[in-house]
Design a protein that fits this description.
mainly beta, Immunoglobulin-like, S-adenosyl-L-methionine-dependent methyltransferases, 2 domains, five-stranded mixed sheet, four-stranded antiparallel sheet, 13 strands, DUF4402 domain-containing protein, signal
């Protein structure tokens, strides 16, 4: 019994048909997972609600630090209302906030002043305002006290002041004034003291 083989032209035609066929793969849509998608925030939590700081002794600049917390993944921009406050991260674009992750913001004050920082969402809306105060460096420590004894009838007041050294090598000085009065006799006494340490 003989089996008929396909002719050569039929084989070539079949091969050419297979070579010209195209395979179509199903389309797959690629997107960010929900935890990375960015939304337009309507509010952010600012902590602390008012920033108060003081320039360090012997320093001309100082940090203004606060944190932002958002309930959604979002992007915000900081609008500074005073040229004496600088944002070192401004060149990197909007500030990215991850959902429920506290983000610390550090600005730089170049001089003592006060003002506000406006927080804007990606739609340009103001969603938070951060008031701040940058006080000058401290040069004096001061204290005062008042006391009265009903058993002796004596009352007294004292005041003291001391300098804040700019360097660990600087001498430390302090001065004080004490006044006392006997409320029953009207007698007054007092003292003054001055000390220097180095």
């Amino acid at each position: 019994m003989f089996r008929l083989l396909p002719s050569l032209p039929a084989v070539l035609s079949c091969c050419l048909s297979l070579a010209g066929a195209q395979a179509t793969a199903p389309s797959i849509r690629v997107g960010l997972p929900p935890e990375l998608q960015v939304s337009v925030a309507q509010e952010v939590t600012v902590q602390p609600r008012r920033v108060e700081t003081r320039l360090g002794t012997g320093r001309l600049t100082g940090p203004v630090t606060f944190s932002l917390l958002s309930a959604v993944n979002t992007e915000v921009t900081l609008e500074l209302g005073d040229a004496r406050l600088v944002n070192p991260g401004a060149a990197s674009g909007p500030l990215k906030l991850r959902k429920h992750v506290e983000q610390t913001v550090v600005l730089v004050a170049t001089a003592p002043h006060s003002g506000t920082v406006r927080i804007r969402n990606s739609a340009g809306q103001v969603i938070a305002v951060v008031p701040y105060v940058v006080a000058p460096e401290k040069t004096l420590n001061q204290s005062a006290s008042l006391n009265y004894s009903p058993f002796t009838g004596r009352a007294g007041v004292s005041y003291s002041v001391s300098g804040v050294p700019l360097s660990p090598l600087d001498p430390r000085w302090s001065a004080g004034l004490n006044l006392g009065v006997d409320t029953r006799t009207g007698a007054v006494n007092g003292s003054v003291n001055l000390s220097v340490n180095w």
